[in-house]
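Protocol step 4 of 5: obtain the predicted structure for the target chain.
Materials: sequence only (see below). No template structures provided, no constraints applied. The aim of this step is simply to have a reference model before the mutagenesis design in step 5. Sequence pasted as it appears in the construct record:
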Amino acid sequence: MPFASASRSAASGVPSDGALAVAGAEFAADPAGIVYWPEQGLLAVADLHLEKGSSFAARGVLLPPYDTAATLARLAALIARYMPRVVVALGDSFHDGRGPARLADTDRAT
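Step 4 output (structure tokens):
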């Protein structure tokens, strides 16, 4: 989930690039890699891969250890921008099945 910044419509504050219509419903596709459904107040994210760094580290491949905190911070910023009623996480929220056990308490509190 890349979480890039996006330009916003002056009227709604919702990003203006990437308007989609599916089966009569209007969606906003944000370049940050999310889809927002204003009518339902639903923010959809996918493939967060939390704890990817710790998964690789367990196999001897070192990645920056702050990937989960950075992903959660970007997700929090998107939630603050859209103020959804519901957030749906699709795909791989954790990089592997042991990811939730490795999640730091500070990240868990986020």
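Step 4 remarks: The chain is about 30% helix and 20% strand. The mean pLDDT is 83.
Proceed to step 5.
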